[in-house]
Amino acid sequence: MSEFRKLTFAYLGLLGLLVLTVGSSFFPLGGLNSVLNLVIAGGKAGIIALLFMQLAADGVLPRLAAATAALWLAILFGLTLIGQ
Amino acid sequence: MSASNESVAFDTPARERRADAFAMWIFVGSEAMLFGAILLVFFMARISYGAAFAAASQRLSLPLGTLNTVVLITSSFAMPLAHLYASAGRWRAALWSLAATVLLGLGFLGIKTAEYTMEFREGIAPVLGAPFTYDGPDRVHAEFFFGLYFAMTSLHALHLIGGIVVIAGMLMLWTRANEASRLRRVHAIGLYWHFVDIVWVFLFPVLYLINR
Amino acid sequence: MSTEALSPPGYLSEGAGPAAWLLTTDHKRIAWLYLASLTAFFFLGGAFAVLMRVELATPSGDLVSDDSYNRLFSLHGIIMIWFFLVPSIPATLGNFLLPLMVGARDLAFPRLNLASWYVFMLGSMFALFSVLAGGVDTGWTFYTPLSTLYANGFVSMAALGVFIVGFSTIMTGINFIVTVHTLRAPGLTWFRLPIFVWTMYATALVMVLATPVLAASLILIVLERVFGIGIFNPALGGDPLLFQHLFWFYSHPAVYIMILPGMGVVSEVLPCFSRRPLFGYKAVALSSMAIAVFGFLVWGHHMFVSGQSAYAGVLFSFLSFCVAIPSAIKVFNWSLTLRKGEISFETPMLYALFFLALFTFGGLAGLFLAALAIDVHVHDTYFVVAHFHYIMVGGMVTAYMAGLHFWWPKLTGRLYSETWGRIAATVTFLGFNLTFFPQFVLGYLGMPRRYHTYPPEFQFWHVLSSAGAVVLAIGYLMPLLYLGWSMFRGARAPANPWGATGLEWQTASPPPPHNFETTPKVSRPAYDYPMKGLRHEKFSPHKEEAR
């Protein structure tokens, strides 16, 4: 698939997920709304990272940096929540 | 040692490019910790005052917020296009794509300014001593929500402005830079721009879509 | 022929005048820029400390007012931590040595390096402005809601200064990480790297992951003060304790930013002056990484009495005991390095041995503090103050002095006076212990920290401590004199005066602008003492006549 097509699909995918996240907020699903929104946001972030930022290319170092940041955010959130 | 290296330390441009990308990702990672910390503050408050936050969130303009998200996502589409064209040596197309990115970024800021103005007029902007005239339930915690909303979105906007300034600077120095430099710079600023987009992708549902 | 008239060869004589220094991208010159700034800040922070100790020599608050005393200890902490300790070894010795030790021509991003110094100076301007305008009284910890709602003083100015300096740290951290990953010479695998490089890498990791969270917490303070956005305001539903979580998420790992480089220096000096390879190289390397990682998991031990949940207290206490383990591993390995060695007591070695003793002692005190029940008793007393000064001053500053003296010949191409070096080291050791050991006693007896008036029964210990401070100050002023003197009149140093291993010693003292004539190739392990098979005679400054 040409690079241009890949980028276009990514763009359309992002717009689609946006529709999903806004649309689903009109259905009262209780706590599930927030979870769904975060999952969709994570999906969008994944598309941006993998397809726009080319996280999977160019060696292991970028992925190492991204994974480390993700892990450290988990530590920040996790231990603070325990502390409260 | 090739003349297209910008750093004297590297032996080949390829190694320098990889080092550039790695450095940018580390920077992105550190910025993620910055926004993560502020999101944590919001998250803790949301857990404590869910109802007040949900009611307050309804007062934000969902149409404008959604429009802004579309604008930013589109700018995030224009950015890798610029990189694609630059790698192929299609410099004019790259230039146009960069210009589009900047314009869309400015568009986002314009919409945001409109939103802020609306919010000040409605009296739901507890910033700089402006009167806060919210009439919904749990006024105190709603004020907290709006305070956090302004803090988080203005921090994001500052980062966006930074990105716009850098791209604008790049465009001004475009003719003086050689091709390898241009490619490196487009790649680097692209990574930063996408990160700012990712932050918004999280901010939008977290602020605008609380239990509508 | 007098050689003092000739300027030293190498990078020092490559271009003279302000522009050549202020616009340099040579990591070695940038290290000097930092050295100048940091030395100035060290003595400024030290001046505040001396004022505090003079005040504390008598039980009544007669030298300064309550408010002034609050500002003194706050500024002492802010300056010493952010404007001296955090950048100290990384920005001076790290900047100078990292490319040399990996066999590179410079750091990965030389212009980013210069930019980091300018960002540091910009932050310094904010901080100095805050100091000159009257300072802050919140403590270096900026706790809310005092800092956001009630403090008078230049809190925003100081916070912005620290915020800006934080970015300098992040820039340095990125440069170091990328350099170690991408610029190692052929044959220089990870496990052949000097431990100093490992600790610089670990430090850099902590820098880029922790500093942004500090930045966030400071921004939120400024937003609250300047823009009126109530984030930590209890009246609005904000949680002041959350500030502490964010602040300590950075500030605990920050202490590892401060100590890891010192551990790196000591790991270079001890093998050299015992002529033995470092014992347990892999354990020392991996435990440095472990300290960096585990250091992020213990921040709640600063908050045992703050109102966080009891479960959190137990968890953080347990994790704090765990984090002592990698440090202990290093202490054992360093001690075993000395075993059966041919030990000589040059100035760097004296400082390194003092580090070993003082760091261990301070670290043991940390274990006491990690125990919940003891901490409840000694929290916010001089026990804590003594603990962290044993680590920060007895450990880190001592290691900084060790490194400065060890690599002085490399930095300047000159030898300092060994006699004066040893005298100064001994004076600081005696002065340090006299200053800070009484503080353990004071704290246990109940003397609170940040107070300048106290019951008369504490005076004896305070007088000892203040006397010690004078001796310590003398010990720190002495190197200013003899090191400064050596820059102009010292004997010329050969490439490897100590007979040390490491790529930095394989090039001239001082090195040429691009470090090496040809890119080195590495095939030997890191600490190849006693360097069998390499004909080398250990140079002794005493035997060589001063030219």
What is this entry, summarized?
The complex is a heterotrimer of chains A (84), B (212) and C (547). Chain B is mainly alpha-helical and 212 residues long. Helix content of chain B is 78%, strand content 0%.
Annotate the secondary structure layout.
The complex is a heterotrimer of chains A (84), B (212) and C (547).
Chain A: H1 3-24, H2 31-52, H3 61-83
Helix pairs in contact in A: 1-2
Chain B: H1 13-48, H2 50-57, H3 62-87, H4 91-122, H5 139-172, H6 179-208
Chain C: H1 18-22, H2 27-56, H3 66-85, H4 88-102, H5 110-133, H6 146-150, H7 155-182, H8 195-227, H9 240-274, H10 281-294, H11 310-338, H12 347-370, H13 372-378, H14 382-412, H15 418-445, H16 459-489
Helix pairs in contact in C: 2-3, 2-4, 2-5, 2-16, 4-7, 4-8, 4-14, 5-7, 7-8, 8-9, 8-10, 9-11, 9-12, 9-14, 10-11, 11-12, 12-14, 12-15, 14-15, 15-16
Helix tally of chain A equals 3
Helicity of chain A, in percent?
A: over 70%
Low-confidence stretches of chain A: none
Please summarize the sheet with the most strands of chain A.
none
Mean pLDDT of chain A: 89
Oligomeric status: heterotrimer
Shape of chain C: globular
Distance between the termini of chain C: 8 Å
Largest interface: B-C, 42 and 46 residues
Radius of gyration of chain C: 23 Å
Instruction: Please describe the biggest sheet of chain C, giving its number of strands, its sense, and whether it closes into a barrel.
Output: none
Number of strands of chain C: 0
Q: What does the radius of gyration of chain A come to? A: 16 Å
- Quote the beta fraction of chain C: under 5%
Range of strand content of chain A? under 5%
N to C succession of SSEs of chain C? HHHHHHHHHHHHHHHH
Q: Give the averaged pLDDT of chain C, no decimals.
A: 91
Features:
heterotrimer, B: mainly alpha, 6 helices, 0% strand, C: 547 residues, mainly alpha, 16 helices, disordered C terminus
Description:
The complex is a heterotrimer of chains A (84), B (212) and C (547). By secondary structure, chain A is mainly alpha-helical. Chain A is built from three helices and no strands. The model of chain A has no long low-confidence stretch (mean pLDDT 89). Chain B is built from six helices and no strands. The longest helix of chain B has 36 residues. Helix content of chain C is 66%, strand content 0%. Chain C is built from 16 helices and no strands. In chain C, helix 4 packs parallel to helix 7, helix 4 runs parallel beside helix 14 and helix 12 runs parallel beside helix 15. The longest helix of chain C has 35 residues. Classes of the chains: A mainly alpha (84), B mainly alpha (212), C mainly alpha (547). Chains in contact: A-B, A-C, B-C. The interface between B and C is large, with 42 and 46 residues.
